[in-house]
Amino acid sequence: MKNKLISINPATEEKVNEIEVDSEKEVIRKIDLANDTYYNYYKYTTFSERTRLMKNLSRVLHENADNYAKIITEEMGRPIKEARGEVLKSAWCAEHYADYAESYLENEYIKSDATESYVQYTPIGVILGILPWNATFWLASRFFAPALMAGNTCLMKHDSHVPGCALAIKDAFVKSGFKEGVFENLAITSASLENVVRNRHIKGVSFTGSVNGGSKVAAIAASEVKPQVLELGGSDPNIVLKDADLEEAAYTISLSRVINAGQSCIAAKRIIIEEAVYDKMVELLKANFSKFKVGDPMDENTDVGPIARNDLREDIHRQVVNTINEGAKCVLGGKIPSGKGFYYPITMLIDVTTNMTAAREETFGPIAAVMKATDSSDAIKIANDSQYGLGAAIWTKPERGKELAKEIESGQVSINGIVKTDPRLPSGGVKKSGYGRELGPHGIKMFVNTQQVWVGPSTNN
Fold it and tell me: pTM, whole model, 2 decimals?
């Protein structure tokens, strides 16, 4: 019997999908197809042709949002209202690059000793996207929308636990009229990845996932001298200073922590509060966290669904127990509930210090680690005391926030707002959160040839 990719509904613990793994022969066929399609067709398409196709894709995502959202919820437990929003955000990403890719990749004219000299951006070939389970459609769109609009073709290796979502994304491309080979789904496990990355037709790799997985893929790609974009883990600090709007900060931070049951790289994970307002913020945060409804992700009123897999839930609980044993206080949640489904309660840990588990590791669940800082300098020091540097937020007066943002070691900083990704703005990290950028004008230039063109004769003659 062939190996299967199997998905389990984390709310019911029942099997949802069972899909055969692509054979080695089929993987090679898809890679060759993507390469042939690139060289014989897609690299020669105009921006207007790509725009038409990408607009079709955006329309298909809009029209099928309810159906695709149901697959997301069944396979990884994201509340249906969030899953629907994720599909629509993916449609926005496709539409954004359809509208702006050409202007993002316009020639840049630079004066030199040439009669004319400029930089142009040309596609490079087949790009491989390796994606995680936590935002199945959105993270895929961040990979394929800019890559395809730049003129590359794409191969997607999605997480093995969400095969139905992978097929649904491929279905959207078929419905949109994309020619076979422009976008293909590889139904494989991580064990097959090295041979794919090393394949001579793969010209670049975009990876979203864990630090461990990303470092392995990066090492393989680097050994083949292939460009990469890595979006890895995060332990985002949210700093609250005494001059902040505390009620607004508490509401936004609590929302950020529980979106997708806390299974987000850019969620508010370490909440660092200036000592003068610490007790007040703890009260406000606890009150806000207590308002969210944990339950059936198919219910439109549910705010927090189950954790995607039981092993992930067990690891979250280990982090909570360890942090409590290390001296933190649990003021909300902290116990695995009985009954079916991989649920975990919204958990709030206070008096967390930098040496505790919840501060040192990425907590991929609805766990808030609340930390105390003596002043703004101490808060920045605590924020930067992490191996991660993906996103951060700071709550203070806007002008002060802009100055302090320069001191925060992260790829993006939100001042008095939620940390989020936006097709118009670049996203990515520093330190072990990765390198390269997705989205915005910067993201589309990750997988292109930045080609200098010098036109003679020389003006020095």
Answer: 0.97
